From TrEMBL:
GO molecular function: fatty acyl-CoA hydrolase activity; RNA binding
Originating species: Chenopodium quinoa
A Gene Ontology biological process term: acyl-CoA metabolic process
Native organism taxonomy: Eukaryota, Viridiplantae, Streptophyta, Embryophyta, Tracheophyta
Family under the similarity heading: Belongs to the acyl coenzyme A hydrolase family.
Domain of life: Eukaryota
Protein name per UniProt: HotDog ACOT-type domain-containing protein
Keywords: Coiled coil, Hydrolase, Repeat, Transit peptide
Residues annotated as domain HotDog ACOT-type: 175-325, 400-480
UniProt feature coiled coil, ranges: 341-381
UniProt keyword annotation of 4Fe-4S present: no
Amino acid sequence: MWLGFTGFMENLLQEEVEIMESMELERDWVLKFSDDFRVLIGEDGSKMLELVRWDPALAVTALEREFMVDEEKVKKAFKFPVKHGKELDLEDDDVRRLNLLNTLPLVSPYSDGWKHELSSLEAEKYRVGVIHEFLSLTLEKKASIHHIVEFKEEFSLTKHTYQMLKKQPRTFYLAGTEMNWVVFLKDGYDENGNLIQKDPQQERWGKMLEDLDALAGTISYKHCSNPDGMTRPILLVTASVDKILLKKPIRIDADLSLVGAVHGLGGHPWRCSLKCCNHHKTVLFYMLCIYLWVDGFDEKKIDGSQMSNSVALVANFTFVARDGETGKSSPINHISPETTQEKLLWEQAEARNKMRRLKRAEQNKEKNKKVVSRIDKLLAEGQEFVDLPALADMDSILIRDTCQQSSMICQPQQQNVHGRIFGGYLMRKASELAFSTAYTFDGASPRFVEVDHVYFVKPVDVGNFLRMKSCTPVFSIPNF
């Protein structure tokens, strides 16, 4: 008994029998498709049909597939068709309203939208500005219409949101199926439908520092190893990072390569110079031929300026070697420059070493009076904030108000070959904290320029509790 649905269910069963007869299907047709279906018998003797294999091709009919939008193709590059008032086949009054709606000034999205009458032109301009601002803050400059209407109360949206967006063909582009529209911000795409500015925060400078330190360590170990394999066990330590300078912007859609070499006076400690290069096809082909040792390839055919002009970042790492058994200073292999480039690096390293020694001598003899005067002035200004805050400069803040910190337990996953925490990982975490501190201070995404110096004072072991602190000691407006 079907409890009130007897007649309806009988009609459904009768229609099912008629359909099966029209398709010339037998009553036990399920048993012929054992790869797809299986009949299960329950404890009460009832039969249940179980799907064994899912075939996506059977999900929709061929007729339905013809009218479905290829979502993967929509996500790729495409051109935005621009329609103006004359092409929309509107009446004169609607054309006039459309032209008024696309005419500046728009209503600021940061104003109070509730003060406008819901059906007024100002209220509609306000809603357009709010959605424009919302899409401009997204990474891909687009959003599903369902995600937008989730904020209907905050954005003062009405049930005519889709019609409102259709009247803004110069600002928005609507794509997708009828009930699953995707709203694109045209300002974020070029004429071919490609995203103009990729996510700038995907440039993971912390990960770049980690990779640079790993490459510098690999190069140093290779330099200290003997060809006969009889190298005495040594312990290499990253003593400091002298300089990391960004010469050109690094884009996430560009091919990058990290190259480096040991140079210096062959003494102890020694320096490892690294470069990060942006490459075009010619330079990539050049590097591939060198890596594969292609016979007959002439390196002189490649213009050296192509390699030098592609350098986007330079870094200098200083290493020291300790004997693995005694812990004392260990001798390393000396450097013999051969090519013109190697001799130039040798001379530059010697000049930097001399300059460093001179600066240390000058600092030990006499401190810079201008620096001392500047420090005294800043300390006096900070003391005024503490003692008499009402009289202090309102355009200044105390350094302690910019401080940020993070804590973590060092895990064995981040240890190096010597069982201690990898120095590149520490620089990565410090870089991420510095990014957060700068972001909090300025209220905008900061841009990496350079790292002045990094000193590794003490080693960090697995299991140590590590606390990192950062602040913004100096703020100046760069001259762009």
